[in-house]
Amino acid sequence: MLVLTRRRGQAICIGDDIRIVVTRIEDGQVRLGIESAHDVIILREELLESVRRANQSAQAVAPAQFNQWLLSHHPTTQDTDTIQEAQK
Known about the structure:
By secondary structure, the protein is α+β, with helices and mostly antiparallel strands. It has two domains: 1-35, no CATH class; 61-88. It has helices at 45-59, 63-72, 77-87, and strands at 11-14, 18-26, 29-35. The chain starts with 10 loop residues before the first strand and ends with a helix. This is Translational regulator CsrA.
């Protein structure tokens, strides 16, 4: 881990595409601005962990359970036929 000291208005560059700027320091909090290309996904760590847990939980659901959930949420007749065909 690289540890740096920065003051308000100073920045850190990561590669050529990411720039992190300290915009405010107040009451034990640091506000950061992040500049990057539009295709770079930037998430708070706690949000990323929440998404990972949800994805792992979704993978653990058995197909039959998922099909039952689909049927219980007002499927159309065509959806019901498709699900029942898949269960055979």
